[in-house]
Each structure stands twice: as structure tokens, then as C-alpha cells.
Amino acid sequence: MKKILLFAGTTEGRELSERLSSLGLEHTVSVATEYGEIVLKEDSFSHIHKGRMDCEEIKRFIVEGDYAVVVDATHPYARIVTDNILKASSEAGILYLRLKRDSGEDYSYDGMSYYDDNGSCAKALMNTEGNILLTTGSKELEVYCRYEGLKDRLFVRVLPSKESLDICASHGIKGRQILALQGPFTKEMNEAMIRQYDIRHLVTKKSGINGGYGEKVNAAISAGISIHVIDREDEDNGLSFEEVCRKIEGLCDACDSEAPGTADVYDMRVILAGVGMGSKDNLTCEVQRAIAEADIILGAGRMIEEYEARVERKALYKAEDIVPYLCDLQANDKEGKIRTVVILFSGDSGFYSGCRNLSMALQQETEAGRLRADLRIMPGISSVSYLASKVGISYDDAAICSIHGKNTPNLPNRIRSSHKTFLLMSGVEDLKRLGRLLIDNGMNTCRIWAGFRLSYPDERIEELTPDECIMTEEDGLYTCLIINPEQKTRLLTHGTADQEFIRDKVPMTKEEVRDISICKLKLNEGSVLYDIGSGTGSVAIEAAALSDSIKVYAIERKEEALKLIEENRRKFSLDNISIITGVAPNALEGLPVPTHAFIGGSGGRMRAILDHLYQISPGIRVVINAISMETICELKEILSSYPVRNEDIVQVQVSRSRTAGDYHIMQAENPVWIASFDLGKGEVV
Fold first, then answer.
1. What is the pTM of this model?
2. Which range marks the domain in which residue 10 is found?
């Protein structure tokens, strides 16, 4: 089919270009400035034209480009541009579509004044006092700078483009008065600017939901300042976003089905959207519009109950339920009525969210051709950022963990080594669990900011002690900030002293030998380590403490030793260690496949253990400690029998000082052989 010409100047214009590309429709996006070009994404279906054009230039561009339809997504206040596009399209004899911006809600606030144009607003501001935040853009700046007394009170928020900055400079606006920023701006960001610059008057266009009008007005109302609104002279009688898309798709269907691009049109748009904490007031504008345009809405029951879909609203949130539902839906939708499916997730879609698993599953279905869908993810506001803003504490230097439907390894150590820890939770039982965990691990001095049902009308944020956490009874979703005044710096290396371990009479790999052995293991993030003949668990403890992502299986047969491993695991607060009772290799059956193995004691079954490891995990990294001559002799036989790579053998002789009166005497420990190697592929002799 013939191409589409899109005049963009709004967020809707950018989003329409992305939609057209997802549908495989070739189009040109015309933008007036270099900055407009920067914020747009050019791909194989979209091409960007930069530069201002008058009516005749637009007409010539349409004819020479052989366009079939023109879509006007310029700013609602760009009247001259819209008039030129409409006239040029009419004279060229092609279809013209105007993309209407959602104007958002109306406000009842005594401090609001409305004006037909910027000139009237500027004159009215001359009769006021205090600083003015001007958010109408650089092109309207000249009107306000005509009045010398007014100009000095202006703080001008403009796009961070050279053109905007040049306009500010040409009108004598000083650097301290220029806020060169790219939106969108949240209500909180607007409030911060109002406070920072002691603003008494906000000037804004009635620019709709995507123009951030609501966020600006709500911030000004919260701050109790005057609002001056440049209202449009008449209503924008264009089409909604979905109406424009359907018009274009209808035009596609009327054209040759073999035309370039149409073969890749998707049957369905699937949006995975984060809805924040739950209140509708905290939805992003992008998610609001997606929900409003949805044919189908899916998600957990509590999340979707406030929203209406055009066709169906269904309580589904697991990937194993949603994927077959969408495939069946598409197969049975013969008339193509289902265009947009929105799946809602709590919080931020990219932050401890079920969105990840679902997006991966849907991607697999589309790649396999079982689902023809354009997938898109929209972020939400996380409870962490919300709670941080409420208590006035930053989270860029905080640990962030979640026990909401999941287990976070070694949580006490994370809290112990962080001054600030944000913790996502489920119900009140998680809050009680937190209190007990802090007390059991000697962190009674921690202060907890507990956020209950954040964003809802009954929201409550209170400061609790660990004991008060345990006594809390009210159930509901909690997010907590834990302040640890006694933060302990976490070691970046292993090297725990022998005396730190609970030992009794069970043999233990000594500190220096342990250090070398762990270095020879060459553990990685996510490693799975078998500690065979674990003894007191000293190697398991040191290895597990390196990273929460490492999983260690401590295999031991002696009852006394098993008790010591459990005591040491509790002492060092490491729950990424699993204690396995039994004799290797039989005790290894059914365990996850290892990437590494440390053999501190084999009980004469070295060959059987290595046979098992070789069969289940070729390429595994192995470290063996040998003290007796029998084990050392067995080592030589093993190394010549297996296809080993990266072989390395060291003998370690450690002497420790002891005092004898005023003297320090060196006392030798038993010499230890440390053999390390990778079990490669090949024939076992």
C-alpha cells in the first residue's frame, strides 16, 4: 500500500509511530526540530523528516512522497501548523486524520484562572506577586518577556534542545531561570520544583493527560499556589488513538494484500502493564490510556476489579493460564474484534514482578508462530519509590529485597551489611517474620518504617521496633524500610578465622588450607557446590558467604558433625546451604547438578564419588584435600585415569606461632596436598 505521513509533536505522535511499526506499516514521521528527531525511534518501517514546512512545502512533500493518508498528531495549540496540514492534504486530495489528545479531567479549585491566549495571561500576571513557573514552552516565551517586571519573576521549563535554549537567551532569560528538562513529570517532581524555586503561580496549557496537565495541576493544588490555564478556544474534534489506528488498518485492508509491509501485521496487541501499588491515582498516563482502550483486561482479581474492558475482564495472572487463553482467543476471533489485551501487574512491571516470566513465555509463543501478537511492557510506580518519597529517604544507596511470594537468601546478612534496606512483603505474617529475624540475629536496634496498603485511602506509614513488628495484627500488603544504625561492612573476600567456627572435636579444614582450596574452586555467581565430607561446614560456610546466588550442599554422615554444620549455618545466617545426611556417592542422588565439588573427606570412596560426578556433570571443577599417604597415592591414580583439564597440585605446610614465656615459637600443622582440576570429556580408564 501507499505510505503514511505522520506529523508528530506530542507523546501520542511518538506512540502512534511505534504502533505503526509494530503493525509493519511503512510511514514517515515529520518533526519540526532536532529534539523531536532525538526522542523518536527510527526503524525499518519509520523514517524521520526534520524541518518546518509551510502549506505549499507540505503539499509538495505529500505529492512527491506518494502518501495515502496524513495523520496530524501535532500539539493541540499548534493551530497554524494544523491549518497548514489540513489545507495541504485537502489540496493534494488525500485522507486527513486528526489525532485527538485526551484532555483529562476538569478541576474545581478556587485558585484557577482561565485565559483564551498567552497575551491575556501575561497581562493578568502583571497584577500578581511572586515567582512564576512557565510551562507553556519556549515558543510562547516572547509574550511574557514583553513586560520587564514580569520577566525577572519567570522560571521557564523548556525542552533541553539548542533551539529552546537559544530562544531563552534571545529574550534575556538568565541561566538560573531556565529549567531545561524532558518530561514526563510526576506530581512529586512538580511539587519539588515549586518548593525549590518558591513558585507562587503556575502557567500551563490545558494539554491533556499525556501533556502532564493533571500532574501539574494536582501539584499546584497541593502547594496551594495559583494556577493560570491557557484553554483552547474550541474542542479538538479529532479521533482517539484507537480510532486513528483502526482507520489506518481499514485502509490497509482495502489495499493490495501483497503490498510491502502488510504481510507482517500483527493480529493482536498485548500490553503487560504495571499498575503501581493499586490506587488508580498512581497509574501512569500511558497505562491509563491502555486500560481505557483495552478489549480484554487480565490480572489478579483485586487488580482488575476497578476497571472495565470492552469485551471481557478475566482474573488470570499466571503464565501457564494466560498463554493458552490468548492462543485460544486469537484462534476463535475470526472477525478480528480483539485488538488490544492488557495484563495488569502490581507495582512496576520490571521490578520483582511476574511480568518477566509471562513476557518470556509470550515471546516464545510468538517466535514459534503460535501467537501473532505485538508485545509491549509498560512500567508502573514501585512501592519502594513511593515509600521512599513518603518518608523522605533516597533509595539509590539502599539494598532492595523481596519476600513477597519468594525466598530471599541470607536476608539477615543483607540487612546487617546495609544502612538502608527496602523490603517488599505480602501480609502481616511477613512483618512478624521480619521482627523475629531481626531479634534472632541481634539487630534489635533497627528502626522499621512500615508502609501499609500504600496509595489506598487507608494508607498508613508508621515507625516500628522489631518487637512491635511481631505484635502487629492488621493484615494487608506491607512494604518496609529498615534503618540499621549498626551497619557492618561486608567482607569482599573469604577468610573467616578458625576460632569463629563452632567446632567441638570434629576435624576442620584449617584457615589457610581453606582459603587456598576455595580460591582453587573458582566459584562463579550461581554456582552449585557439593562440599563432600563437610565436617564442621567451614568450607560450605565460606563458599556460601561469597554470594547469595551460590547454592551449597554440605554432605556429611556423622551425627555430631551434622549438628555443628547446622549451628554454624545459623550463626552465620546462611540459608543458601542445604545439609545432606548420608554417605557419598549415594547421598548425592537427586540433588541439583553441581558445577563444583570440594572433597575434604571421602571415607575411601574417592573413585566412586568421582565416577558419579563425572557421569552427572562432565566439566565439573573439583578440588581435593589429601593428608594421608593413602589418599595422596589414590590422587595420582585418579589423575591418570580421568580426562582431566587445568590440573594443579600444591602442597601446603603451615606453621602457627605459639608463645613460650617471652618467645614466639612456630608450631607446624600437618602438610596438606591440594589438587584441583576440571573433569573433561573423554574415556575413563
1. 0.56
2. 1-101+237-260
